[in-house]
Amino acid sequence: MRLENITVNLRPRQPWEAVDLGCAMVRRDYGRIILLWACTVLPLWVLVCMLLHAAPVWIPLVVWWLKPLYDRVPLFFLSRAAFGERPGFAETMKQWPRLWLKNCLPALLWRRLSFIRSFALPAQMLEGLSGGAANQRIKTLAMDGGGSGLSLSYVFSKIELAAWIGLMAGTYDLLPEAAQPEWSGLSAALDIESSIPRAFLWWGAACHMLIVTLIEPFYVGAGFALYLNCRTRIEGWDVELAFRRMAARLTSGSAALVIALLALMAASSPLHAADPKLAQADTNPELRKMLGELEGNIKKARLGSEVKSDPAKTVEKVLKEPEFEIHKIKSKKWVPDFKSEKKSSAEMPSLGFLEIIGKGLFWLLLIGLTSWLVYYLVRNRHLFISRSASRAPVRAPKVLMGMNITRESLPDDIVAAARAAWATGDGKEALSLLYRGSLSWLVNRRRVPISDSDTEEDCLMQVIQAGEKPEAEYFRQLTGAWVQVAYALLPVSDAEMGALCDQWPFIEKGGAA
User: Fold this and answer.
1) Locate the Protein-glutamine gamma-glutamyltransferase-like C-terminal domain: which residues (predicted)?
2) DSSP H or E segment with residue 502
3) Residue 377: in which H helix or E strand, if any?
4) What is the DSSP track for 327-352?
């Protein structure tokens, strides 16, 4: 990095000016930054979606938590572009693993909740610091720009939240009715799983990813500009750059001056010989004497001026100029005064009961939060149980409520067989085929823990707790129709039977249960 190559006009700026500069830097190369973002971040998001496909409600939280990784590639590009070197696609992709792996754990663990993340990121990534050196460097920079970095994070978090909610609200009417949540059930029971369809959760996660993609590069650019402004104010980058440019100009000027002096020296001897007055002085003794006295007086004057000038005084006078004034920053740090506290505590009445009450409230709050967390995890345990775990060997029943539910006892196309039985007027047989087929699929494919002694109601409860809402809703309607026909001996209508056949959900890639 050469300071002479910087393309940004370095000067001390107000924080809002620096943020505006960072956003302008991002706008200048927004297309390239978005392309690099898509090539580096989207594969990670695809992996997150695959891992959390059973619980999409957690995807926005995981995407938000991994933000420190996304910021590194845009920062790498902006830092190079600021010094006139826009890295190409191949170079950036070559640096991608190193950028993500460097200080990865601190960024995702104990530094994740830092309120000056974008402001501190350049100190960690561009200066190559880690551990205590990085903490000390960030602390030093934060003395000047920490407040601005905090405000920047606050504003951008609010912008991102507002944009996310606005996008979801603006596109809510475009969603199909089946994907829209039941707000009344959500407000009544806070049951996210049953009140909010999975399609809506996926749509919310997609909106969040889109908003993060559009806004996060500006957050990185604004933090990088605050970092540059902070170093300009503290380390005088603008002054250093001005001196370097001045030195470059003087170097070129002094070279020209040396060339001119050499030319004059080369031309002095013929001029001296050609000058008639000098030639006369060489031959006239009186004129030679006058010139000697004049030369002696000049040497005395030069010697007197050198004696009068004192280097120490000259240096001291120069150092008193405003340009060499040493600036100091005064900061206040609270240091506990234990001696005075002991004296004051001895004079004040005992407040030990407040400490006991405070500890009691703390432990009550902690126990309450823990109990709520355990209750929530137990109630929504199906969200955290992976499908692979559910495929553990389970002893599936073969006969339920006197009905054979083995795959061999059922036709290949259960729906077609049920329609045929219904067409012949045997409604009980038609519903029996659907009911046995659904139980066979749920027990053998979905591994729903249904036992031999379960009744229709027990089976329905097990299916609902399994967490697949479309299947549970269909099975609820089918169970109602089956109980009506089998026990109450009341027939179902053609429309109801047709809906049960048309909405048959137990199909996997064209195959029946």
Assistant:
1) 434-504
2) helix 494-502
3) helix 352-379
4) P----------HHHHHHHHHHSPP-H
Which tens digits make up the pLDDT trace of 84-117?
Answer: 888 888 888 888 888 888 888 888 888 888 889 8
Rg of the chain in Å (alpha carbons): 41
- Asked if the model's pLDDT at residue 263 lies above 60, the reply is no
Tell me if 476 is assigned to some domain.
yes
Over residues 34-61, mean pLDDT: 90
CA distance 72 to 93: 12
Tokens for 321?
């100029």
445: exposed, middle or buried (Cβ count in 10 Å: 0-12, 13-18, 19+): middle
Give the confidence band of 11 by pLDDT, cuts at 50, 70, 90.
confident
Domain-ending residue, one of 241, 264, 289: 241
Per-residue pLDDT tens digits for 123-162: 888 887 777 888 888 888 888 888 889 999 999 999 999 9
Whether 332 is covered by a domain: the verdict is no
Residue 370 has pLDDT above 60, yes or no: yes
Q: Is residue 346 part of a domain?
A: no
- Cα distances (Å, whole numbers) of residue 452 to 204, 399, 403, 449: 41, 7, 11, 10
Q: 253: part of which helix (H) or strand (E)?
A: helix 237-274
CA torsion through residues 281, 286, 290, 295, sign = positive
- Residue 438 · residue 460 · CB < 8 Å: no
Q: What is the mean pLDDT of the chain?
A: 80
Tally of structural domains, the chain: 2
CA-to-CA distance for 153 and 200, rounded, in angstroms?
28
